[in-house]
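Example for tutorial group B:
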């Protein structure tokens, strides 16, 4: 099993979408990229901790490739928006890929270059690609949030 971590705005819808992909074994929502240890949702929402809302994806690389996960990531949000997605704004909603290996880092950068060269978006891609740091699991009520409420999507 391997891990991949993506921030694409509010983590509820992102988690649901990644969970639908064959070969994804598990998804966990949390916070990554900030300075505060053990951040809470309330603290992250102040936009002062430096964390992004992210989804940590555990996947079976024999069933789904990292490139397929990258394609899903870019398809499910607007990677040209800086520090926002839809009605949500702040650095916690930034478009970011936290890479767990040098290979993931290279693949993510190559995917951005490919999409940019193809003119896939009218504006430049704002997605950050950075090595993974400490992943802090979000509070339990955020895990499978939409599923627990009988919802299939939110505004992403």
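The residue assignment follows.
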């Amino acid at each position: 099993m391997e891990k991949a971590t993506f921030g694409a705005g509010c983590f509820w819808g992102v988690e649901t979408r990644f969970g639908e992909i064959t070969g994804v074994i598990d998804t966990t929502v949390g916070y990554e990229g900030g300075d505060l240890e053990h951040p809470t949702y309330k603290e992250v929402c102040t936009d002062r901790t430096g964390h992004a809302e992210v989804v940590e994806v555990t996947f079976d690389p024999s069933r789904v490739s990292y490139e397929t996960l990258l394609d899903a990531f870019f398809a499910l949000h607007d990677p040209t928006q800086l520090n926002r997605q839809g009605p949500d704004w702040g650095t916690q909603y930034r478009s970011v890929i936290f890479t767990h290996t040098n290979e993931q880092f290279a693949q993510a950068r190559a995917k951005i270059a490919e999409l940019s060269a193809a003119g896939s978006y009218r504006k430049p891609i704002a997605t950050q690609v950075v090595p993974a740091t400490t992943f802090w699991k979000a509070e339990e009520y955020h895990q499978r949030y939409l599923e627990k409420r009988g919802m299939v999507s939110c505004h992403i």
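The chain has five helices and eight strands. Compare this with the pattern of hydrophobic and polar residues in the output above.
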